[in-house]
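S.,

Sequence below, as promised.
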Amino acid sequence: MLKRQIKKLGTLAVLALLCVFVLSGCVQMVMQANVDENGGGDVSLQLGFSDLTYGFLSGSGNEDPLASITQEAEAQGYEVEPYEENGFKGIKAKQQIDSFRTWFGSSNYTKGITFLRNKQLLNQTFDISGTAKIADTIKSSIKQMQLSSEPADIRLVITMPYKITGSNATQISGDQKTATWDLATFTDPILISATGPILLFGILPAWTVLIVLILLALAIIALIIIWLIRLSARKKQSAQQAEQIEEAQQAEPDVSQDMAAEDAEAPSIEEIIEAENTAQDAEDQPEPVSPIDEPADGELPPEDDTEPKEEQ
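The prediction came back faster than expected:
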């Protein structure tokens, strides 16, 4: 009969069943999932038995119950280490998760729970809902034996990357990101929802990237406007300088025209040489002898006023 129950329920459920059968409140099972902004994260499992129950289960040549649980957890990719604290002895297992969407449906500890990730523009919403079948199996076994499940410590803890927007959890943390269900007494399917910004490149919120891009665009536009203003100012300055130069040229006398007039008034070299030759020729010609004025008829010649020199 016991072997058939083992095949039907699995190692973890049967050990929990035996624990409850021996002593109510002897099992401790805490499942925790930490969800990150990309829909992955990490999970941890803590499963232990009271010292009295562990001694009963492993005594009389029976197989170590933690050995089979460890083997099962390692087969599912968990890193397992033993622990002993507060009168309990058991294992702690942890695992990195790439996608909770596939993990919640494939893990033996969380079968029956679904994980949805919905994206809306710059935000995304994570929705987790369903029933952990392992907890239902343990509670069903306790109920069949007409025992109370209240002393058992069976908890599911989920930490979201954003503040929880809706949940039916037994307890929610002060930062509004962690929800805890007491599965020993909780009978409804779990519900939890959280909404936050999408991460780009796995590190930057989409709205932050959008703001940075907008600021960069505004900075580029501002630089273009400044460049256009400076270019316009330079063109205006160049036009003013050109206008000033033109006014200055108009105010000054036309030197070129004066020089042309002087050139026109000045004799050419040929004219100078010709004038010099003419002057030279004039100098070389003998002076004409003026004719002696003859007295007119009836007129006496002019007397020689020159007095004769006295002989000495």
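The longest strand covers residues 41-50.

Coffee later?
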